[in-house]
Amino acid sequence: MKNLISVGEAMVEMSPQSLPGHFHMGFAGDTLNTAWYAIRLSPNWNVSFMTAIGRDKTSDQLVSFLADAGIDTTHVQRHDDRTIGLYMIALEKGERHFSYWRGQSAARQLAADRARLDEAFAQADLIYFSGITLAVQEGDGRENLLAAIAAARSAGCQIVFDTNLRPALWDDNEQMCDWVSKAAEVSDMILPSHDDEAVHFGDADPEATRDRYVAAGATTVVVKNGPRTIHYQHEGRQGVVQPAIVSDVVDTTAAGDSFNAGLLAAYVEGAAIPEAIRAASNVARRVIKGRGALVPIK
Ligand code: ADP
Residue ranges of the Carbohydrate kinase PfkB domain (predicted)? Predict the structure, then answer.
């Protein structure tokens, strides 16, 4: 069985219910969402989630949640005096607003120990991480993570990176763009979303986003663009795929995360890239017709 390791931060999600002051508690986070969809879509793969959590009951609940979903928890580290970050959703006139408590989260330390990363990655066939994974690391975490990923890549592991630009998690735009570009340089497959890249890197169109990441050295670049045309390049060949129109969008949360899982699931089973992109956009299409990040599509 092949091993996919998704690396990043899981958070407690508190989403408001119809009765004022009542919330539903769940778990979410970009790389967790992708792992959650990947295990549903890739039954032939071992999907593990690498993160750091606390030793408290809420952290135990996350481990149970992952295990119940079929996600391997071998690489979940326990931190003695930290716990999981949390976000709360506030609804105003149908719009979702987010408040975060994640500044001291255990996941900020997930890459503190380089040897631990190397040990985990030695078992991996595919490593998936994001700009958020990188953004939240403290101390030497970013250097450690990228060095361990580069070493795994040299040993033959495929590296897949979603740039997931979140300026609020970085000191400034320059710092974000520098680190995201460094991460791109150690990646085989890059999955950006054009609207964010246009704002923060100044890309005039999706082709510019594609070309910039191809220039960083990736074999495969797939540029998502909401309901608009997806531009890709794979092994030197360029093309486009048009996602199906969705007239009854309920909630676009995790569109990109589920798309990435759909793409990987098809790709690891040997699908050609255009076919894998079509499969990915069909997964995302079903996810945006449901509420929340984790929509049971299978
Ligand atoms: P992110 O969530 O990372 O910002 P996007 O919004 O670009 O990602 O969406 C990812 C994918 O989800 C798109 O490439 C497309 O396949 C699908 N998607 C997103 N929004 C829509 C929509 N309104 N209609 C149809 N497909 C969509």
Answer: 1-294
Question: Domain holding 145: CATH number?
Answer: 3.40.1190.20
Residue 284 Cβ contacting ligand 1 at under 6 Å: yes
Q: What is the per-residue pLDDT for 251?
A: 87
Answer yes or no: is 29 within a domain: yes
Rg of the chain taking only CA atoms, in angstroms: 18
Pocket test for ligand 1, best of 96, 180, 224 (most atoms within 8 A of CB): 224
- How confident is the model at residue 291, as a pLDDT? 85
Question: Is the distance from the beta carbon of residue 243 to the nearest atom of ligand 1 less than 6 Å?
Answer: yes
| 298 in any annotated domain | no
Task: For residues 104 and 106, give the distance between their C-alpha atoms in angstroms, rounded to a whole number.
Answer: 7
Residue 192, pLDDT score: 98
| Confidence grade of residue 60 (pLDDT, cut at 50, 70, 90) | very high
Domain that holds residue 36: 2-192+243-287
The sign one gets for the Cα dihedral 176, 147, 114, 34 is: positive
Whether the pLDDT of residue 32 is over 80: the answer is yes
The ipTM assigned to this model is 0.98
Is residue 180 included in any domain, yes or no? yes
Banded model confidence at residue 95, pLDDT cuts 50, 70, 90:
confident
Gap between the Cα atoms of 269 and 222, Å rounded: 18
Give the pair of three-digit tokens for residue 110.
């997930």
Number of domains the chain contains: 1
Distance from Cα 166 to the centre of ligand 1, integer Å: 17
